[in-house]
Amino acid sequence: MNEAPLGWLAAEYHLPATYSCRLPFSSPHSALISPAPGPATVRLALVRSGLELFGRDTVRDALFPWLRAASVLICPPERVALSEQVMRAYKAEAEHGQVILGESVVYRQMAHAHGAMTVYLHVPLPQRETLEALLRNIGYWGQASSFATCLQVNERAPKPTECAWPLRSLGEENLLRPYFCCVHSEFRDARVAWEEVVPFDGPRRRSGRSPFKMEVYAWPLQMVRQDGPHTLLRRTPFRENGLP
Amino acid sequence: MLDTPTLAIYELSVNVRVSWQAHSLSNAGTEGSNRLMPRRQLLADGSVTDACSGSIAKHHHAVLLAEYLAASGVPLCPACQQRDGRRAAALVERPEYKNISVEQILRSCGLCDAHGFLVTAKNASKAQGTEARQRLTKHSLVEFSFALGLPERAHETQHLFTRVGDSKEEGQMLMKMPARSGDYALAVRYMSAGIGVDTDRWRVAIEDDGLRLSRHRAILAALRDTLLSPDGAMTATMLPHLTGLRGAIVVRSAVGRAPLYSALVQDFVERLCAMEGGSLLVFPFETIDAFHAIMEHLLTASAPSLPASHRKPHLLEEHS
Which chain A residue lies closest to B184 (C-alpha atoms)? Predict the structure, then answer.
C-alpha cells in the first residue's frame, strides 16, 4: 500500500440549490452551517458512495484504508451566501397511551453558492479510476437535499492558499485577517477502524475514544456583507507564507 | 395490466423554472398576529430573493404518493395509512413492531420505502423499564430543493385582509399577507434504484420487478402532480396560478448520478443537454403540456434499475 505513487485528484462540484452542512456541536434547533463540507464529511461521503458502487466488502477491505488516510483539501465556492431560515419542527410525545404532536420553531442556516467547490484527494494513482468513480458518484453533501453535481475529476494539485486549513496551522500573518472560521470534524487518525465509523455494519466498536476529532478550521472566505439573517462570504486566498 | 417498460432508470432529476403567480406557498411564520412573513434567501450574487422550502413540496409529494400507492395496491404501514409523518418511527413502540427490521418495513410500506424514515437508537433503561432499540433508517428517494425566485423575476405585493376575532368584543382585526409572483428555480432528485432497497447496506429487500415497478410508477405520478398542481401553505385562499414550466428531466439509466443544474443559471437547459450521452438521457421541455407528455412517457416506458451492488444481467439495461 505504501509503495503506490501518490497524486492529487481534483473533483469539482456544482451546488445547484441551497445546501446545509451543519456544524458539529451546533444544535439542531438552531443549526449553524459551514460554507462547504469538512474533511470527515468528505471521507464519509466517499465511503457511502463506495458502498453504493462496489458493496461493503470492497470498500471496507480495499478502499477504506486509503480513504481514512488520504490527505483531503477543500476549496470553497467563489462566493457563499448564508441565510437563517425559520422552520417548523414537530416532536411526538407519548402520554398515557396517546401521542401528542408538539410544534416548535427551529432555525437552520441555508447556503447558496456561486462557483464550483473543489475536493482534492491525495491518493494512489493506480487506483485513480476507482476513486474517480467514487468522487463522481457523490450527489449531496451534508443533508441529502443539499444537492451536488460532479462536473469533472482530473489530476491537479491544490492551491493551498485557496483551501481550508486547521486554524492552528496558519501563520500569524493570516490570523490577523478576518477569515471565516468554524469547527469541523476529522477522522481521529489514519488507523480509525471501519466499525467505528460505519454504524450499521455489525456491533459498533467502542474503543473509548471517538473516531472523530474536532478542530477549528479557517476557510479562505471573508465576510463582505452582513444584513440581519443574511451573510455573504467571498473567497479570499490565504497568504502563502503562513501556510503549512 | 402493466405495460412492458423499455427504459431503466437508476436516477432521475427534474430541473425546472416554474412560474407561480399570487401565491404564499411557503412562509417563515408570522410577526405577531397581524403579519405573515414570506421566506427569504440570500443568493451568492448578493440579492435577497423569495424562497419556498423543499420540505413543503416533499410533504405534498408524500401525501399524493400515499394515494397513488393505495390505489395501486401497494401496502402502507398503519402509520402511513393515517398519514402520520413519522412513518415507521410511529410504530416501534407497538409490541408487534418491537423487533422489526429495515427489510420488513420496506416490504410492508411503499411510503416508508420512498420517503424514508428514522427510528433513533435507544439505550436500555432499567429505571424506565425500557429496552434497547437499534437505529433503523432509510434516506428518502425523493428530494426537493428550495424553490428560489429569479431575483429579477420575483415580486411581492402586500395585501390587507380583515378577519373577525374570537369574540364580538375583539371586533375586526387586520392582517397583512403577501402575495408573491415569479419564476422559481427548483430541482428534484428521485433515485429509483433505491426502491425496495436498504440504501445504507445496499441490500435489496424487494426483488420482484412487478412490485418495484408499481412503486416507481406511483412515485412518478405523484411527482408529475406535485409540479402540475402546486400545493403548500395558504392554498385554501391563495392557490397559485401556474403560468409556466420549462426545464429538463435528466435520466441516468445505469449506475451514477443524474446531474442537477440550477435553473437560476440562464442556460441551464443547454448545459444539461450538452451532458447527454452514454447512460444519460435529457428530455428538455418548454411548456407544462410538454412536461406532462414526458412524464406520461416515463410512467409507461420506464422501470427502476437495480443497485450496482446487486449486479446481475438486467434486460432493461441492455435495451436502454
Answer: A17
The 10s digit of each residue's pLDDT in A127-176 is 899 999 999 999 999 888 899 999 999 999 999 999 999 999 988 877 77
Neighbouring CB atoms inside 10 A of A43's CB total: 23
Condensed to tens digits (0 to 9), the pLDDT of residues B6-60 reads 899 999 999 999 999 999 999 988 877 678 899 999 999 999 999 999 999 999 9
CB atoms near residue A130 (< 10 Å): 18
Q: B255 vs A94: CB contact, 8 Å cut-off?
A: no
Spatial distance between the Cα atoms of A226 and B67, rounded to a whole number of angstroms = 45
Instruction: Please give the interface size between A and B, counted as residue pairs whose CB atoms are below 8 Å apart.
Output: 126
Chain B closest-CA separation from residue A92 CA (Å): 8
- Which sign, positive or negative, has the C-alpha torsion B194, B198, B204, B210? negative
Task: Report domain extents, chain A.
Answer: 6-238
pLDDT (average), residues B209-231:
97
Q: What's the CATH number for A6-238?
A: 3.30.70
Mean pLDDT of A172-184: 87
Query: Which of A85, A88, A151 should be substituted to probe chain B, the one whose Cβ sees the most B Cβ atoms within 10 Å?
Result: A85
Q: Which residue has the cell 451546488?
A: A15
* A89 vs B contacts (CB less than 8 Å): none
Q: Do A14 and B261 touch (CB under 8 A)?
A: yes
